[in-house]
Amino acid sequence: MRLRNKPWAQKLVKEHPEAILNEPDPEVKINWNERFEDFSKPLAIEIGSGKGQFITTLAKQHPEMNFIGVELQTTAAGMILRTKLNEGIDNLQLMCADAANIAQYLPKNSVDVLYLNFSDPWPKTRHEKRRLTYQSFLDKYQTVLKDEGHIEFKTDNRGLFEYSLISLNNYGMKFDHVSVDLHNDDDEIAQRNVETEYEHKFAAKGNPIYCLHAHFA
Questions:
Q1: Does 124 count as an annotated binding residue?
Q2: Would residue 120 show up in a list of annotated catalytic residues for this protein?
Q3: Is residue 9 part of a domain?
Q4: Which of 90, 112, 120, 147 is labelled catalytic?
Q5: What is the distance between the alpha carbons of residues 99 and 111, in angstroms, rounded to a whole number?
Q6: Which of 29, 54, 82, 214 is a plausible cystine mate for 173, CB 3.0–4.6 Å?
């Protein structure tokens, strides 16, 4: 969802290069050891962080981990950055960047969990390659994830969910959890679920939330 441009967000992003990488050059290696107090901690990354409700909440809940939020829209990235700065979330770094370059931004085999929350479904067939569960993106995720790492995916879009199940299965991934109504499940995954701002809105309308967890075999 495209947000209305907010000049304050662009200004904030430019003023805090220590907290957010703004359109980094994929050809220039990022020194993550300088951006985190201890980069050896388990690392989680969210691609498409929106306004940041999910990633900021998770980072506050888990100080024993490091988090990276990747968001393409500057206005949304600025909103996350404002929350990070106001609440002193030191174990969170941000990137205003294209997820297509994720394998160039992060070290190989460095990520423990990769979150895909309410990604753009790109419903038209000609836009299939833009879906974040398309094969070319899975190639990149496999590069940055540790051998024991995994993907956690949520959406309210049944078409994208079904497409993602097929795409990940055809890629040879193994499913650890699949739900077609996460909010009405009664299990450990549902109980520890952290909502995104879009998830809260969609669920309030009665939309089922689809969820899957999967790892590379």
A1: yes
A2: yes
A3: no
A4: 120
A5: 14
A6: 214
